[in-house]
Write a structure and sequence with these properties.
It is built from 5 helices and no strands. It is globular and about 45 Å long. With about 130 residues, it is an all-alpha fold. Helix 2 packs across helix 3.
Length: about 130
């Protein structure tokens, strides 16, 4: 039962993060700017905060995805090698953005996606 709950959470997170990642440029910019304005107590320069939040979002959503996926593999007593698919998705997620209005491919974002993947998987391995 734990395996199926974990699998469901992993798939829901993947769908959620992919939906957010593939919004058009206008919507994603507006969403992150609104968040930066709400968090302006952290940094008076909301544009700088907005940029930092957008970068941290890549790391955060991929860390959660990797942690959920590795936990799911563990709970199912499955081999860990399928987690390597996250490396491919870290790139493919960015590569598919060129077909979305107002979005573009960024190697920096791929690197941030990979960083989040490594952090999430490492956290599960170290804690579990």
């Amino acid at each position: 039962m734990k395996f199926f709950i974990s699998l469901t959470l992993t798939l829901l997170w993947f769908a959620f993060m992919t939906f957010l990642s593939h919004q058009d440029g206008e919507h994603t910019s507006r969403t992150s700017l609104e968040l930066a304005e709400r968090l302006s107590f952290l940094e008076k320069d909301t544009e700088r905060l907005n940029c930092a939040l957008r970068r941290l979002a890549h790391v955060g959503v991929y860390a959660v995805l990797a942690a959920l996926f590795v936990c799911t593999l563990r709970l199912g007593r499955l081999p860990r090698w399928p987690a390597a698919a996250l490396i491919f998705w870290a790139w493919a997620d960015e590569a598919t953005k060129r077909w979305i209005q107002g979005r573009h491919f960024s190697w920096l974002d791929v690197a941030l996606n990979l960083l989040g993947t490594l952090l999430g998987a490492a956290a599960v391995c170290l804690l579990g």
